[in-house]
Amino acid sequence: MDSIHSAILFASLLIDPQAESRVLKSCLKVWGEHLTRRILSVYGIPLVEGKLASNKNGALRIAEEIGYPVVLKGASKDVLHKSDANAVIVGIENDEEFSTAYRGIIANIKSRHPNAQLDGMLVEKMAGKGEEVIIGMKRDVSFGPMIMFGMGGVFVELFKDVAFRIAPLSSGDIEEMLRSTKAFQLLNGWRGSPKYDIHAIEDVILRLSKLAVDHPEIQEIEINPLRVFPEGQGALALDCRLILKCLQELHKFTKHKDDVRGLIERFDERDMVFARQDLIRYFGKDSQQYLQYFKNRPDEEKFHTKLSNKDPLGGRNPRDAYMFRAQFGMIELLGTEGVVDGIPAGKRQSFPPERAALKIKETARLYGADLVGIGRLNQEWTYSHVGSTGGDRKGYQPWGTVIDLSGHKSAIAMGFRMDLGLLRCAPYFPTMLATAQAYAQSAWTAVRLAEYIRQMGYSARAHHFSNYQLLAVPVAVDCGIGELSRAGYLITKEFGLGIRLSVVTTDMPLCHDDPVDIGVQSFCEQCYLCAQDCPSGAIPAGEKVLHNGVMKWKLDEKKCYSYWHVNGTDCGICMAVCPWTKPQTLFHRSMAEIASLKGPHQRMMAWAERVLYGKYKPALPPDYLEPQKRR
Ligand code: SF4
Ligand code: SF4
Q: How many other C-beta atoms can be found within 10 angstroms of the C-beta atom of residue 281?
């Protein structure tokens, strides 16, 4: 479904190139029928045949193309209720009637909405006879997307004969929902009257449920009416509209609020450099996965083939490589589906959300986390598809599996400090040990915390190095652990860049932390140490850029990853040189407090860092490690 997600984002920009700026200006944005039809059609919801015309000649051509009789509708984002504005004329039989109707609609809109901007005219085929129902979705603050079904006309207004269910819905849920209404009996052959196509209604509801889950940016959507034809003859949406949430509304819980400038497309884990490398290493060049992925990406294929000819990371320290392989081997075991996820206990322990959050945080610390924060799980930070599977190793979801974490509303982000002594040996082998150690600790803590939550009767999934289903850095920002830096990693006040992350997502009701502002954005604007010392030039020295809807400093991960392969190990120089990556002494903690205050002194601090410590030189590895072979 992710390709559909992309299609919608793309379609929305095609439809409305000014969308981004207008969405930012207004808090809610309404899409009329002509725009909503495009999204419904991407999801395969059947629509009455029709097209938008920008002028009268174009409209006439469409009418001739689809054949009389037709319906003519004025399309304007400023006119929500077309019928109230007399902007709909049905049963037009010929060109003459068409011209009169065209002029009439323009006059009606002008008289009722003098300032309305007309986007064009929708010309639609007259649909055959049938029954009318309403299908819609309203997003509730507590329950999420609520799917609505009801009979059209007087039934909905007079008898309030509507049913609501929370998406995502299964076929069984939909059947039960329909049967709970009186409308069902009417559609199902009440006292000898004809039966209508209930299966077609179920199909539309299923598709709408999927659309609602895929797009948290949609606040409301309505198909009114859906005309249902006799059994076996289907159904057609005759009118529809949607209300889009403004981006600030979507991100009001997040630190990214100010930096969000457009719609964010979920990231496909298969596009990560590590996942691409896995395609060569584990699946092989003849595999279906390899051929499918690289078919239209010749440049990426060349890049990764070149890397695969280099030594594996850590391979130049053969006698010590076991130290990190042991850690990553265990992380792999902790990454299997049966360990990261599971079935919650039948009986739920209930706590007020503040109390539950306190218990979770303290337990995470007890299990080994150095930092913990809880925030709303923003679905845009979840991956769309599984990509890092080590060649579909046993116990893991297969490569390309669609990821759906929509049932989890909260994320618990945890930070684990890296060993500074080892990190300062960057870009050599000891950095790999520091990385492996922190990842192993993060995995072990996350799986136990998720299990603890499941034992209390709630759904919970651990996300760690071996099995992330989300982007841990923006999630950690939303959970108030730290901020995104110029180097592309998370900076925390406590450990700077020297930290690794794991996350647990859950449906347990939890109180959320606020994102933090520790002054990183203005500090990084005035400090370029990581960019200056990065041996691959992967870290930008310039301004933030717009990337996938967010303003950020964009790390060039291919340059970084290439350097690792040239060097034979992880690098980590950026982490080691960052002025925030310091030991937890009283002096350094005080400096971190001062660094958090925005102002010109931040530039002075970055300058003083270079003067005091000089140009970056890696520390010597500890005695127990063998010297690294150099090329
Ligand atoms: S890890 Fe090394 S190569 Fe990669 S961005 Fe940091 S300094 Fe640059
Ligand atoms: S080295 Fe300077 S610019 Fe780079 S992340 Fe650290 S504070 Fe920001």
A: 15
CB 553 near ligand 1, within 6 Å: no
244/221 Cα distance (integer angstroms): 9
For residue 575, the ligand 1 atom closest to its alpha carbon is: 6
Q: How far is CA 567 from CA 420, 561, 631, in A?
A: 20, 10, 8
Cis peptide before 427 (omega within 30 of 0): yes
Work out which ligand 2 atom sits closest to the CA atom of 529. 1
The larger pLDDT score, comparing residue 141 to residue 275, is at: 275
Comparing CA positions, the residue from 577, 596, 554 lying closest to residue 498 is 577
Convert the pLDDT of each residue in 350-409 to its tens digit: 889 989 999 999 999 999 999 999 999 988 899 999 998 888 889 999 999 999 998 999
Beta strands in 195-332 (DSSP E): 218-228, 235-237, 240-245
For the CA of 572, the nearest ligand:
1
Rounded Cα distance between 212 and 373, Å, is 28
Q: What's the pLDDT tens digit per position in 404-458?
A: 998 999 999 999 999 999 999 999 999 999 999 999 999 999 999 999 999 999 9
pLDDT over 90 (residue 86): no
Reduced to 3 states, what is the DSSP secondary structure of residue 410? strand
State yes or no: pLDDT of 21 exceeds 60: no
Residue 487 CB–ligand 2 contact under 6 Å: yes
What does pLDDT average to over the chain?
A: 87
Q: What is the rounded distance in angstroms from the CA atom of residue 395 to the CA atom of residue 405?
A: 19
* Ligand 2 atom closest to residue 581's alpha carbon, by position in its atom list: 6
Token pair belonging to 619: 């520390």
Closest Cα to atom 3, ligand 2: which residue?
A: 524
HEC readout, 118-131: CCEEEEEECCCCCE
Question: What's the CATH superfamily of 47-235?
Answer: ATP-grasp fold, B domain (3.30.470.20)
The three-class DSSP label of residue 44 is coil
Where are the domains positioned within the chain? 47-235, 269-613
Candidate of 495, 530, 610 to mutate for ligand 2, largest count of ligand atoms within 8 Å of Cβ: 530
With a 6 Å cutoff on the Cβ, whether 618 touches ligand 1 is no
DSSP-assigned states of every residue in 468-511: --B-HHHHHHHTTS-EE-TTSSEEBTTTBT-EEEEEEEE-S--P
pLDDT tens digit string along 480-496?
Answer: 999 999 999 999 999 99
**Ligand 1: does its nearest atom lie under 6 Å from the Cβ of 563?**
yes
How far is the C-alpha of 538 from the C-alpha of 536, rounded, in Å?
5
Query: Separation of 520 CA from ligand 2 center, angstroms?
Result: 8
> In sequence order, what are the residues at sequence separation of 6 or more whose Cβ sits closer than 8 angstroms to the Cβ of residue 327?
436, 437, 439, 440
Q: Ligand 2 within 6 A of 372 CB? A: no
- Cα–Cα distance between 37 and 32 in angstroms, integer? 9
Place of tokens 């005759």: 238
Please give the pLDDT value at position 153. Answer: 63
